[in-house]
Amino acid sequence: MRNIILFIRRFFTFFMFLVLQGISWAILVKYSKSHQAVFAEAANEVTGKVSKQYNTVEYYFELKKTNEQLVAEIKRLYDERRSSFEGADSSTQVKLDSMLRDSTHKGFRRFTYLPAKVVNNSVTNENNYITLYRGRLQGVHPDMAVVGPDGIVGRVILASDNYSRVMSLLNHKSNVNAMLKKGYVSGIVEWDGKDPSYVTLRNIPKSADVKRGDTVLTSNISEQLSYPPGIMVGTVTNVAADNAASNFFTIRVKTSTNFYSLQYAYVVQDASWAEQKKLEAQTPKN
To answer: Domain locations in the chain?
Structure first.
């Protein structure tokens, strides 16, 4: 207590100066419009900077919630894509009455998108894989397609109760049926094991009109799994002939999915895939 009294006595003059200075500024601002304007501008600047910093900190702690909201919104948009629905046969009643109908009541839902968190992802190996935090108990099984917010990602090859293993598009064993948006010419997308931002589109005939900047989409024809048709694969960056004797182009495609920053993905549930594969398996072999 004695030290506090000594401190006040020692700096009494300085404290009185601050008090009087404050009173003077208050009187000046109160009775002078020009000073009021200057003070208000300065106060707004200070409070604005403080609010900006506060919002930055608040936004950082709200990132998880924001990401979850974005994932839900992207899932909703995927679910509402026209390609997620199939029209009912006009002459035969298809037994799919337990499925959801679209808002127009003119079709049946074929594709459903299941959001999943990416918990492991490699991009620098020759054969890359992704682990998702969603498994059999949440409706995932092998051969299901996987897409991201910006385009295709890969396909499920293994599933445990709560996790699934995905063969990335960046894998030598990955072959995806794709097509040029312009002309719907189909080919095969492969990865050469070099740059994770680029894949190769093969089997496009030289008769096709393909140029740099053209869009590459998933095809409605697939031998391995059923991607919804029309999902982004990427954009054409270079077109070259295989060789002088070849009738096909080798096309370099920049992937629409950024595999370096992939945080969430969507496992595609195809209601008719099992039936299609069962029928194809019954095809007589020569």
So the answer is: 2-60, 116-273
